[in-house]
Amino acid sequence: MSDYECEPTKWQEMKAPVDGGRDGYQTKSWHPPKENWGPFTEKGPAPVWFAEANATNWTESMICKAKDLFYEAKMNECFDKGDEVAIKIHYGEWNRTAILRPEYIAAIVEEVKACGGHPYVVNDTTLSYHIFNSMAYSNYQLEGAIRHGYTDATFGCPVLIADGFSGEDDYRVEIPEGLILKETYIGRAVAEADAMIVLGHARGHAITMYGGALKQLGIGCQSKRGKYITHLAHWGDPHDAIGWPKFTDQCPGKACKFHQMCDDSCPRGAHHVTEHGKVWDPSKCRLCYSCQVTCIFSGMTGITFEENYFPNAMIAHADAALGALKCFEKGKVGYINHAIDVVPECDCFPWAGLAICPDVGLFAGKDLVAVEMATLEAIDNMPISPGSVAEEKGCKPGDDKFRMVNGFSPRITMAAAEKIGLGTQEFNLINYEPVLTPENAAKWQVRPGGKPTTVKLRETFHRHDLATEVMPFNRTEYSKDWVFDEWKKYDPFKGESA
Amino acid sequence: MQQVTWVDLAAMTVDNTVSHKLDRLVAASGAAENISDGMRVALKINTAEEGYEYGLRPGFIRTVVRAASRASNNLSIVCDGPRLVDYWKRSKANVFMEAATAHGYSNETLAGHFVINGGFSGDEGDLFPCGSTESILGGVEVGTVICRSDALWVLSHVTLHPLFGVGGALLNGGFECLSGRARTRLLQGLNPYLFNGARPDGAKVASFHQRALEAIHGVKASVDGRIFFINCLWDVTPQPEYYPFSGRPVMENLGFLASRDPVALDAATYDLMMARISDAGDRPAIDFTGVLKEAEALGLGSLSSEIQRLS
């Protein structure tokens, strides 16, 4: 056995309980921001690799193309051998169906491992958001993750909550560069990683209008405290109210059939129904959206958002994203946006609307803003899905879809993101099309590098031929009439091919 | 006189397997008496380090988890904290989880949610008082899985322990439930790995005992006193789980003991062990009777117990 020394851990830096109060909070702890953090691209355009959502052979499988893009975009250079690599995804709300399929995540985990990294999949806890939330407690969130197929077994690596059991395992990160936020709180499983690959699901969002890779950083990497500050909780005062919900005079009070749901929606008991409205204590409120979402999506209008709330929150979440990016050295974060199931709302919703456009494909790169801009432009140029809210609102190809569907342009976020140093809005799209060759067809199959399954089966059938053993199979007697004519009696088109 | 229930390994039949015995132990010892519908019950277990091959079988843990879930009509949580010392980087939760999974401890095998106490960093915890004003600690930070639960069942794999004498209910239900930084504070520089020539200073060890025992008051306070202990006398090895290896077990398997009183439980456990370990070299290097007396003096329980034996 090698010589052993009792190495100090990070815990030994703290000899006493944490001092209370925001000024003393974590003043003695490790500070995660790296000295050489920064956007990957100093000056645009930044390269973004794209693989379209379609497949006609082995090499064009979306999973195979995801693996190809990982290398085309040089994500294997985001980390060194032995690095701890956080794979940031959204675990999805209970009953949510439009989430990333587990295969997309497993594909990247496999390649991180193949390149010598130590991957683990992470997501932070959320605030309550709505009355039946399953993501605020880590055990509830993991139940949902398992239900979605996100497990150690499916990914081949640990599936963790980034900010602890209760969402308090975080680090404060100062962001003097921020336009609104000057600090935020990042889950430690993210902050302590050596590198991060962000797998964004590109779709709409009720607050930020659009959610992709940037939102994975700006909200997804934030602990509960980080989410509160990003929501702009208590920014201003209750009278100008940008940092609080807006209680209107439209609340019917106990006449509303959802009034008990509404009362129950606040995790702090900040409001309760009266005969003809609501009584609200703003000092208890922390702007978790739970009452607003519960009211709005019940079809009521008693609790909503202040005017100008959304664009300010969009800019704030770009600030928060910078807090997450600062935890990594420059070039240590890679992004893949999956414009698949492009639905109107976030994965934190417990339902999924119809996709607003057909599946687009995958976008990969190391410049966060460029990847987002390429994704948005492609989504905007797609046709409109029939029956979707985009069609209902009169969207046409080329329109800013998320602006029309959700209210404001996501380019507000991107402009703010570029200004504070998250990346460049200019991008150079590189269309990736795999070449069909025997080598490429075999490259990402099960047991790569081994014998093809058919050749392996020869060995099995040589030992025991299960078909020959029971042949001839019992069937109706063979006749040419059957083969050429009889089947047409079962075809409503009488054998005419399309 | 505190009650300790012991289910031994005699009379095994198809309807009296180890799992049946564990179920009967939980029922007979009244573990579920203060558990009501909807409560969140946390089970603190000992996950094994890579290289330690005598960890408690996942099937045993699963049986107890299911009993807790039935009692509360709610899915129970299984937890352990990341390793204290970065010997094999086990203080990182992702690597800790990999080691746990390799030993068969996962959501799928344990029938409850396997969660890290104290979060990714092990630092997530709340401060709880350690009883009297004479406490030398004042308070301890209890890991969040435990302190945010309604009740705690401490399922301990009994082993010898280099600093505590015996690792059982008293150690696993106190020190082991704390956040990483709280455990570091309690150790005060004591090296928990006594191989490669490291030897503990006697005075420092005695002082650690007092701090570790006081911590139990904090853990009890964090779950409003709803705490229950099960000791597993199965593969009682010379090293505890956090070691990266272990020698052979020092005695035969005796089954499982349970009680609400951790002092009575560990005392009964220790008596059973001492009656069976004949080789002096296999006995604890630390005087555990002293630890037990100190625990009683701190008001953690009673040394006198009545054992109800089941087969």
Set out the fold topology.
The complex is a heterodimer of chains A (498) and B (311).
Chain A lengths: L45 E7 L9 H11 L11 E5 L13 H13 L3 E6 L14 H10 L4 H4 L3 E3 L8 E5 L8 E5 H4 L3 E7 L1 E3 L3 E3 L1 H8 L3 H7 L15 E2 L11 H6 L6 E3 L4 E3 L9 H7 L6 E2 L4 H17 L7 E7 L21 E5 L2 H14 L7 H4 L8 H6 L4 H10 L6 E5 L6 H6 L9 H11 L2 H5 L9 H5 L14
Parallel strand pairs in A: 1-16, 2-3, 2-7, 3-4, 7-14
Antiparallel strand pairs in A: 1-15, 5-6, 8-9, 10-13, 11-12, 14-15
Helix pairs in contact in A: 1-2, 6-10, 10-14
Chain B lengths: L1 E6 L10 H11 L12 E4 L13 H15 L4 E4 L12 H10 L4 H4 L2 E4 L8 E5 L9 E5 H4 L3 E7 L1 E3 L3 E3 L1 H4 L7 H8 L14 H21 L4 E7 L21 E5 L2 H13 L13 H10 L7 E6 L1
Parallel strand pairs in B: 1-12, 2-3, 2-7, 3-4, 7-10
Antiparallel strand pairs in B: 1-11, 5-6, 8-9, 10-11
Which structural class should the secondary elements of chain A be placed in?
Answer: alpha/beta
In this structure, how is the largest beta sheet of chain B organized? 8 strands, mixed
Shape by Cα distribution of chain A: globular
- What is the arithmetic mean of pLDDT of chain B? 92
- What proportion strand of chain B? 15-25%
The fold-level CATH name of the largest domain in chain A is Rossmann fold
The total count of strands of chain A amounts to: 16
Number of domains of chain A: 3
Shape of chain B: globular
CATH class of the largest domain in chain A: Alpha Beta
How far apart the termini of chain A lie comes to 73 Å
Helix content of chain B: 25-40%
Task: Classify the secondary structure makeup of chain B into a structural class.
Answer: alpha/beta
